[in-house]
Specification:
It contains 14 helices and five strands. With 376 residues, the protein is of the alpha+beta class. Helix 5 runs parallel beside helix 8.
Length: 376
Amino acid sequence: MFNKTIKKIASEEAQSVPQGVSQWRLIKRKFLKNRLAKSGLVIIAILYTGAIFAEFLSPYHMDTIHDQFVQAPPQRVRWVDNDKKIHLRPFVYGYKKERDLNTFRVYYEEDRDIIFPIKLFVRGDSYKYWGLFETDLHLFGVEKPGTWFLFGTDATGKDLFSRILYGSRVSLTVGLIGVFLSIIFGTLMGITSGYFGGLVDNIIQRVIEVLMSFPQIPLWMALAAAIPPQWDPIFVYLGITLVLSLLGWGGLARQLRGKVLAMRKQEFVLAAKACGVSTPSIIVRHLVPNSLSHIIVIGTLAIPQMILGETALSFLGLGIKAPMTSWGVLLSQAQYVRILLHAPWLVIPVFWVVATVLAFNFVGDGLRDAADPYSI
């Protein structure tokens, strides 16, 4: 009974596939049926949009210091004031600083006598958008001298929400650049290993085994620590990206090796050889296109690993350093229990990391399932 049901489902699925449709159309069609994959794609689009327009979306510049509000908690958005009056425009109460005379710890309380309306397209800290033009227009915020800390402030009095958006540029792009380099290394080594075999295959596989035998985090730490500390932050960023990509291509190379070992004996490759087609042309025109869907899937699933790698290195103080910022740099402030007890909002960047990793995994799983359009 079970076998009959499977055959029936497979038959219906096969009949639903139109004849003469390209492989990429079939992959797109099946991918769009996966709700989790589409949700992940939407989340990724939102995250990268926030990174692109970080200056405009942030209420403050990432380096703006509010020395009167160090480690201030998030300001709650309200619609109803203390007198039960409903406001058409959302607002936040001002903060007043108090000190506990027993512990001498500074804490903040809402000043119910001061209301700061939240407005769209407000003037605030000036910035130079992508180095092209200077402006002080922000999507939302409160007019000076008011403050609105959506996620509170850090240990230096900087707005955490603004720094998360600015930090997303580093954390999200390190994954894309690192995976791009890993795909180049992995594709080149994997196809070369599988196509030529013999001594070339043995050498490449032994190199991969050596790289994969080292514990990942300690190896990352050792190589990241080798980057000169006097380097410019941009070069440190590029160095961390290169380290992650040089150590992340082994898995893709091994998988492509297996696919190429199977493809090199198929008729279209043997026919190309019989016609005198050169080896580079066979690799570029036949083997790479037939492995492209697999490369895209593996690359999508590898991006979150790159992001986690950069976050771990920056969290340990071996990655991105000031004046640049990333999610790992922001989380490094929350590694002490004493700080977490007084400022638990400093762990908010971890939710951005989790959302990004889950979104890429959903998209990667959807692409992996869609890569075989005729599967059930």
